Automatic annotation (TrEMBL):
Protein name: ATPase
Signal sequence interval, chain numbering: 1-24
InterPro entries for this protein: DUF4399
Native organism: Paraburkholderia lacunae
Top-rank taxon: Bacteria
Residue intervals of the DUF4399 domain: 54-141
Pfam families for the chain: DUF4399
Keywords from the named record: Signal
Length: 144
């Protein structure tokens, strides 16, 4: 009995200590699903205080609006100047976590002058990340 408890504790510690490994919510993501920012590119200069386009890319997964529960689908969330939220909870909705629950695959945003980070995170029909979570590389843009 103590051996099983010790093994379970070691597995839990290994999961928690593994960088890049995150457990998501109850909705499974498709194998190989990949989300990315198609535009702008990492390190690109964008206009400050003026709208510019952000294009969302997605492979091996479909897009469905909030509230539509369909296998192997989700919708985009754009994270601006923030880290990934908890992967087993609803994605916040604020100026740093933009929701695209109508199934949008691009948007326009404007940023004040300076360095900013952008990252995409897919959410299920209830805005909860999939398991495993599907999120893009975090990119940096410079608003001038």
């Amino acid at each position: 009995m103590y051996r099983n408890i010790a093994i379970a504790a070691l597995v839990t510690l290994a999961v928690l200590a593994s960088p890049g490994l995150a457990l998501g919510g109850p909705t499974p993501s498709p194998a190989g699903a990949h989300v990315y920012i198609g535009y702008p590119n990492d390190g690109q200069v964008v206009p400050a205080n003026k709208p510019f386009r952000v294009w969302f890319g997605l492979r091996y997964m479909g897009v469905a609006p909030k509230g539509v529960k369909f296998p192997k689908t989700g919708h985009h969330h754009l994270l601006i100047d923030t880290d990934l939220p908890p992967m087993d909870q609803e994605i916040p909705s604020d100026r740093n976590h933009l929701h695209f629950g109508a199934g949008e695959t691009e948007t326009t945003i404007q940023l004040p002058p300076g360095k900013h980070t952008l990252q995409l995170l897919m959410g299920d029909d209830m805005h909860i990340p999939h398991d495993p979570p599907v999120y893009s590389k975090k990119i940096t843009v410079i608003a001038r």
